[in-house]
Amino acid sequence: MAHGESGATGPRALAFSPSGLLLSTTDTRMPKLAQIAASPAVEAAWLFQSSLVQFRIRGDAFAVGPAGGEGAPLDPDAPESSGAWWADERARLFEHGIGDYLRATFARPATPGSLLADAPPPETWPAAVPPEATTPEQHAALALAQANFAVLAIVPRRVEILELRTAPHRRREWVLGQDGWVRTDLVP
């Protein structure tokens, strides 16, 4: 899935960096960012229903928010080792990688996952936040959304693919070693 690609569901906020980092978006108010800072090992898995292929990526994660990203486990020669690259990518994802509705979720007045009973009424929340504001309300919502928007990056260390359409199923993994990726066929 390509960054910014539009489909029936609109723009997608999932991308890959030039060095193959998996990029997504998150809200800076979420507890997962403190959890990742304390222990960066993560795993992401998803199933593409139409092709019956499951992907699982394990690696180390870090987030890049308004203040930048510190402690990113990257090769110093990678394009992503530059703070300027991350600032540009964060701005690009915010403006072009997500739609107005998803952008509005970053402008909600309450922390995601907090009690709805303690939050302002949902009908007062912005429903859509365009990347360019034209009204004072949009300017305020856009500023809040930008402050809460972060890029979540996963440095892949192990990738597994399970193909469920074949009989028997097929399962393979790639593990990153000192000399590059090593593929192993596994029992599904």
Automatic annotation (TrEMBL):
Pfam families: Pyridox_oxase_2. Residues 19-64 form the Pyridoxamine 5'-phosphate oxidase Alr4036 family FMN-binding domain. It comes from the Eukaryota. This is Pyridoxamine 5'-phosphate oxidase Alr4036 family FMN-binding domain-containing protein. It comes from Vanrija albida.
